[in-house]
Amino acid sequence: MRLRTKFFGSNLSKMASSVAVILAMTTVLSVPALPGSSAAAGAATTSRCTTGNLVVWLNTTGNGAAGSSYYNLEFTNLSTHACTISGYPGVSALGIAGQQLGNAAGHNAAHRSTVITLTSGSAHSGLGGFQTGNTATVVLQITDAGNYPSSTCAPVAAAGLRVYPPDQTASKIVPFPFVACSHRGPLVLHVESVQKGAVTQ
C-alpha cells in the first residue's frame, strides 16, 4: 500500500511540474508588445511624403553662372503629420498646352542623398509653419538653351515645370516661363537630391 501511494505521489508531482512549465510558456507568449519594443517602434515609423502632402514651389530669386541659372525648388509639407523625403525629384519643362519639352532633368550628384524628415506645417498657425523644418530644397539648374545649336535644341518658350516628388507617380505643375529645348537630346535641366531647409546656391 505504501508503494502504491509513493508511485501515485511521484506521478502527481511530475504532472504538476509539467503543467507549471506549460502555463509559464503560455504566459510569455501572450505578453503584449510594450511601447518601447521593436514592434511598437515599427508601427510608429514616419511615412514617405506623398505628392498630396506637399506644396511644390520655385524660389525665383536665382543665381547665374557659366551659362546657367540656379534656383531653389522647394517641397513644403502642409499635411497634418510629419513625413520623410529623399533622393531626386522628376522634373521636366512644359509647353503652354501641358506637353513635355525636351528631356527630363538629369541628376547632379553634388552631395550624398539622405533621408529628411519634414515636420507638419499645418500644426503651426499662420505662416510660421514655413519656418519650422517642414521644407526641403532641390537646387535646379537651367542651362541657357542658346548654348546649343538651334537645329539640335529648337528653342521654345516653356510655360513651367512638371515636378514629381521623389518616389512618387503623381506630379504637380509649377508655373515658370523660361526658354527650353523642344528637341530631345540637350539636357537643359539638372537637379540635385533634396536637402533640408534653405540652400545657399
Give the helix/strand layout.
Elements: H1 2-29, H2 38-43, E1 54-65, E2 68-77, E3 83-85, E4 90-94, E5 100-101, E6 106-107, E7 116-118, E8 135-143, H3 150-153, E9 155-164, E10 172-181, E11 189-191, E12 195-196
At the fold tier of CATH, the topology name of the largest domain is Immunoglobulin-like
Total domain count: 2
How many beta-strand segments?
12
Low-confidence stretches: 1-12, 18-43
- Mean pLDDT comes to 80
Oligomer: single chain
Q: Give a short account of the largest sheet.
A: 6 strands, mixed
What is the share of helical residues? 10-25%
Q: Give the topology string: H per helix, E per strand.
A: HHEEEEEEEEHEEEE
Structural class designation: alpha+beta
Number of helices: 3
